[in-house]
Amino acid sequence: MKILVTNDDGIESPGIHSLVRHLAATAHEVVVVAPDRDWSGSGAALGEFDVDRPLPVQRVEIPGSETVPSWALAGPPAATVVAALLGAFGTPPDL
Fold first, then answer.
1. Distance between CA 70 and CA 65 in Å, rounded?
2. What integer pLDDT is reported at residue 50 of this predicted model?
3. Nearest Cα residue to 39 out of 13, 71, 69
4. How far is CA 88 from CA 20, 25, 38, 76, 80, in A?
5. Rg (the chain; Cα; Å)
6. Is the pLDDT score of 51 beyond 70?
7. How far apart are alpha carbons 27 and 93 in whole angstroms?
């Protein structure tokens, strides 16, 4: 099963790092896509999309989970989920 891990606290939050380290030890395929900064309290925010100017995304490494594909998206939390569901980071997640 492919599991998407995201949050509204940003890619650098200790909570997402801990969760990813634990999930990396399972048999599941894990992908991380989170905002590039803290968006606490804005979990459902989508922001505005411009198809001619995609949201910037950067590959990152989560300490202790270097084999897990992890991305920081310069946009609000819900945009990370929409991008993943549309296949921006490989096949869409199951969960």
1. 9
2. 62
3. 13
4. 20, 24, 21, 15, 9
5. 12
6. no
7. 15
Please give the share of the chain, as a percent, with pLDDT higher than 70.
Answer: 94
Give DSSP secondary structure letters for 25-85.
TSSSEEEEEEESS--TT-TT------TTSPPPEEEE--TT-TTS-EEEESS-HHHHHHHHH
- Rounded to whole angstroms, the Cα distance separating 38 from 70 reads 16
- How many CB atoms sit inside 10 A of residue 72's CB? 20
**How distant, in Å, are the alpha carbons of 51, 55, 80 from that of 11?**
24, 15, 11
pLDDT of residue 54: 74
State yes or no: pLDDT of 88 exceeds 70: yes
